[in-house]
């Protein structure tokens, strides 16, 4: 499909720079493509609050959360070449490929060469207190590099935590710097598996009170892990979706969780994914029959209209960028025209967009 079909105009003031307080007070646009065909049903689009979520689920349904934890993956450093003094560079880690190696997006990418040394942090201090060195092992496309760090394993993790910054999405970072609030705000309350460089933002809306309400309603909670990469923020530069290449993201679904989710479906319950990341992971782990299997690896699944969903029935997600792979995904899930109408409604009625913005709850259209 043509990428420009997924374009829309978003006023700058609709971009949220801070999350709602409390988190579950954010607005929730419920999008039910089936409402038009059901007598006496509510409208396709209805306005609610995230705290109302339990009322749209049934006892025995299951919510699937991505428990990845955001690391301070934004690194600033100085590039050195042939022993000479160097140039300031910025690197955003996005996928670990070994105990000492990360793929990253570097700026300015064009001037970096294989073999360059980059000193991150503050020279003259010990590594764990403010310095971290790496060699550019490989250079790819669009500023992507593979960095081989001098440290490995837990020591590398500690060094990244010491010198790194939370990589705020570019549409927020362009308006204000990262601060201490972001260390908490840009993390779900259930994050536990370190490795993401971007938050699974639909999960930012959940609070202990909302979890208690879901428990009382008999809604199951299950956790999978997909380490969100910086590629999620890259624009689609192709004119046609067939020509776009997704960046890989690593994750896993345990065999135990797969069995529990299959049991939910077998008894007539629904699977509702919290965030596009958990949806992409579940769909990667699902067979054509709809059965979910234990799965681990890297997924580059690219979902556009025409995709046949195998396992997921509902999706809670924030509002996404124009021309983005995520807006394509929600258009595939709830319907192309329905989602354009939903976004027009959200913009005209003051919903807040992107990572710190409001949420939507989508029912899957008939396939």
List key phrases describing it.
367 residues; 9-stranded mixed β-sheet; 17 strands; 22% helix; globular
Summarize the structure.
The chain has about 375 residues and is α/β, with parallel strands linked by helices. The chain has helices at about 125-130, 155-165, 170-175, 180-185, 210-215, 255-265, 275-285, 325-335, 335-350; strands spanning about 25-30, 45-50, 60-65, 70, 75-80, 85-100, 100-105, 115-120, 130-140, 145-150, 195, 220-225, 250-255, 270-275, 295-300, 315-320, 360-365.
Helix share of residues? 10-25%
Order of helices and strands: EEEEEEEEHEEHHHEHEEHEHEEHHE
How many helices does DSSP assign? 9
Strand proportion, as a percent range, falls in: 25-35%
Helix-strand makeup class:
alpha/beta
List the helices and strands and how they pair.
Elements: E1 27-31, E2 45-49, E3 62-66, E4 68-70, E5 74-81, E6 84-98, E7 101-107, E8 117-121, H1 127-130, E9 131-139, E10 144-149, H2 153-163, H3 170-173, H4 180-185, E11 193-196, H5 208-216, E12 220-226, E13 249-253, H6 255-266, E14 271-274, H7 276-285, E15 295-299, E16 314-318, H8 325-334, H9 336-348, E17 359-363
Parallel strand pairs: 1-17, 3-12, 3-14, 4-11, 14-16
Antiparallel strand pairs: 1-2, 5-6, 5-8, 6-7, 7-10, 8-9, 9-10, 12-13, 13-15, 16-17
């Amino acid at each position: 499909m043509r990428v420009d079909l997924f374009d829309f105009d978003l006023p700058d003031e609709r971009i949220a720079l801070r999350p709602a307080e409390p988190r579950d007070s954010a607005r929730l646009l419920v999008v039910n493509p089936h409402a038009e065909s059901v007598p006496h049903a509510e409208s396709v689009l209805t306005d609610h609050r995230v705290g109302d979520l339990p009322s749209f689920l049934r006892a025995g349904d299951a919510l699937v959360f991505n428990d990845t934890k955001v690391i301070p993956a934004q690194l600033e450093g100085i590039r050195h070449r042939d022993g000479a003094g160097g140039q300031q560079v910025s690197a955003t880690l996005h996928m670990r490929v070994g105990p000492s190696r990360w793929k990253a997006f570097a700026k300015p990418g064009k001037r970096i060469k294989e073999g360059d040394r980059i000193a991150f942090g503050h020279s003259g201090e010990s590594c764990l207190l403010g310095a971290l060195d790496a060699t550019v092992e490989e250079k790819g496309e669009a500023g992507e590099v593979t960095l081989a760090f001098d440290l490995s394993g837990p020591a590398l993790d500690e060094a990244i935590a010491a010198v790194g910054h939370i990589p705020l999405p570019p549409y927020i970072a362009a308006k204000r710097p990262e601060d201490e609030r972001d260390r908490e705000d840009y993390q779900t309350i259930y994050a536990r598996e370190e490795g993401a460089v971007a938050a699974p933002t639909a999960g930012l809306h959940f609070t202990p009170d909302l979890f208690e309400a879901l428990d009382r309603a008999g809604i199951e909670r299950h956790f999978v892990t997909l380490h969100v990469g910086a590629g999620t923020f890259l624009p689609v530069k192709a004119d046609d979706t067939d020509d776009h290449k997704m960046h890989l993201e690593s994750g896993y679904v345990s065999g135990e969780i797969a069995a529990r989710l299959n049991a939910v479906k077998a008894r007539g319950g629904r699977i509702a994914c919290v965030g596009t990341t958990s949806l992409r992971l579940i769909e990667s782990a699902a067979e054509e029959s709809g059965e979910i299997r234990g799965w681990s690896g890297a997924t580059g699944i690219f979902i556009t209209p025409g995709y046949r969903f195998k396992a997921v029935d509902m999706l809670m997600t924030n509002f996404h960028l124009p021309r983005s792979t995520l807006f394509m995904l929600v258009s595939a899930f709830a319907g192309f025209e329905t989602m354009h109408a939903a976004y027009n409604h959200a913009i005209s009625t003051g919903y807040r967009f992107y990572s710190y913005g409001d949420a939507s709850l989508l029912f899957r259209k008939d396939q």
